[in-house]
Design brief:
alpha/beta; seven-stranded mixed beta sheet; two-stranded parallel sheet; globular
């Protein structure tokens, strides 16, 4: 597959490929917009996504030093107000070192750029490194499911590879890294996923293989998802002759549709 020299991979692009190579092709190679509802109930999903984005913006503003009272006055919608109140009472504490909200890191894998935007990094040069990710969905996924997601794989791997750009050139050691998923709907039950050098080496091999596989395949004939039930929650299902009606699921965040738009002037990166 002739990927453009400036093609960049992210966790959401890689997750799309793993879930459905055809969706990866339509969304990221052909950049095809398809006017279909991704899942039902549509209006509820739209409202939840809007409030989820507002929650992330509030936390970022708080961690950037804005006045807590002034921010609280803007959290008016019921879900957002509840999440914001829960964040103030139960958000992760005792984070090490310096905090970097909405940090972006860039490195390389398989000859291509790999990028990630983090909700929050807490970095102690030569010491602990914590990745915090806010998840506003109503359900609390299992640790096993989260461990297998490309978000977890890419975020921890890239922090070790490129995090030194934020800590005076001292990269985090894998054994000092942990990733915390924090859920406003389940504030006392965060998911803490540790890391180590063996896992980092395995992630490096996996990502190299995955990117190499994508780059070596012919674009034409990329297969659809093996499990057609996935297609009920994909906006391309009618284009792929996998049905017209969107599937029904509770409102949740959808990381798979995340598009990362990066200003490379703001990207902290290792040599590429």
């Amino acid at each position: 597959m002739a990927l453009p020299p400036d093609f960049q991979f992210s966790q959401s692009l890689l997750q799309d490929y793993v879930d459905c190579p055809r969706r990866f092709q339509l969304r990221h190679l052909r950049r095809l917009a398809w006017p279909a509802v991704e899942s039902e109930p549509f209006l509820e999903h739209e409202r939840h996504l809007r409030q989820g984005a507002a929650f992330h913006r509030l936390v970022w503003q708080h961690l950037s030093g804005l006045d807590l009272g002034a921010l609280s006055a803007t959290a008016l919608e019921p879900d957002l107000a509840r999440w914001w109140s829960t964040y103030q009472e139960h958000s992760p504490t005792r984070l090490p070192g310096r905090l970097y909200p909405e940090a972006v890191l860039s490195g390389s894998v398989g000859g291509f750029r790999l990028v990630a935007r983090y909700d929050l990094l807490a970095l102690e040069p030569g010491g602990q490194a914590v990745i915090v990710d806010w998840k506003t969905g109503p359900t609390r996924p299992s640790d096993r499911w989260l461990e297998g997601r490309l978000q977890t794989v890419v975020y921890r791997y890239l922090l070790v590879e490129a995090g030194g750009s934020l800590t005076d050139g001292v990269p985090p050691e894998p054994d000092g890294v942990r990733m915390v998923y924090w859920f406003p709907e389940h504030p006392t039950d965060p998911a803490t996923l540790p890391y180590d050098s063996h896992r980092h080496a395995a992630d490096a091999r996996y990502l190299e293989r995955l990117v190499g596989e994508i780059a070596s395949r012919e674009e034409e004939g990329l297969p659809q998802a093996d499990d057609p039930r996935r297609c009920a929650f994909c906006s391309y299902r009618s284009l792929c002759a996998r049905g017209q009606q969107a599937g029904w699921r509770p409102p949740d965040e959808d990381d798979s549709s995340e598009e990362i738009i990066l200003d490379f002037e703001q990207v902290a990166e290792i040599a590429f």
